[in-house]
Amino acid sequence: MPIVVDAHSDILSDIxxxxxxxxxxxxxxxxxxxxxxxxxxxRVLALYSSPEYLPEMxxxxxxDEISAxxxxxxxxxxxxxxxxxxxxxxATRAGKKGFILGMEGxxxxxxxxGLLRIFHTLGVRVVGVTHAARNYAGDGAFLxxxxxxxxxxxxxxxxxxxxxxxxxxxxxxxxxxxDPGFWDVVTLSxxxxxxxxxxxxxxxxxxxxxxxxxxxxxAGSGGFIGINSINRFVEPPDLPHLLxxxxxxxxxxxxxxxxxxxxFCYYLLEHRSPVERSGLRKGAYLSVEGLAGDHDVPKIPRxxxxxxxxxxxxxxxxxxxxxxxxxxxxxx
Length: 332
Prior knowledge:
alpha/beta, TIM Barrel, 9 strands, 3-stranded parallel sheet, 6-stranded parallel sheet
């Protein structure tokens, strides 16, 4: 059976929130059944520090999320933290779910590149340079307009971060990075890199989406692009139009460089207060119509087959491409 991979997930934020409310075994009760419903075998779990933790508490937040995951893994014989390609294959062959730790923005590192070694030891194998703001590494692609000075590319710390990450076998993720920073990564990279959850700017003009030139550059590195299900990045926001983004990625990058980075976030609304929810845009945290959550993921291969994709190509998109790039980036 082909392995299905979701290259970007925020469920650690949900797990930590539920644990803080006194719940235990959140993986067993909620997320493993959800993954079963969608046939998802492997997930990259984002270590994310929301704005209220920045900058002073980002390190603590990331360590709390890792600790929360370790507690869940201790309680679940069906879940495994995977540090290598071989461990992913071993887990899935045993019928277990494989999880990969990824950093969504380098905020937990502050300005200390030496901390990256510690996170690598803890199991982190993906690092996103920024989230949707400026950090010590560079400027993110802002989700809302902000008043700033001159926007730039990678800082000296950002350059060192990319070089150190690739040297120690951590897959660099450019989703959320702004355009100048993206091209800095292209120049610096000596290994494949990825845009774990990004769509096509030509189809939806959002800074978070990739230009055709950027899509080609990711493929040129030998890298990976995962389609993002969040509704604001697709217009009209429905599953057929999300698959139009996938089609364009395939035409530009080649089918061997495209996959899933679904970024389901609907569950994060539960952790927002009524006041916080009232300030959100309509549809915030929701995915495109027809792809509400894990249970809808089996629609994707069916619809791809209807669009004329061969079985081999569908298997590549659903997981094989990510696994190949992960191996190349982390093992060389």
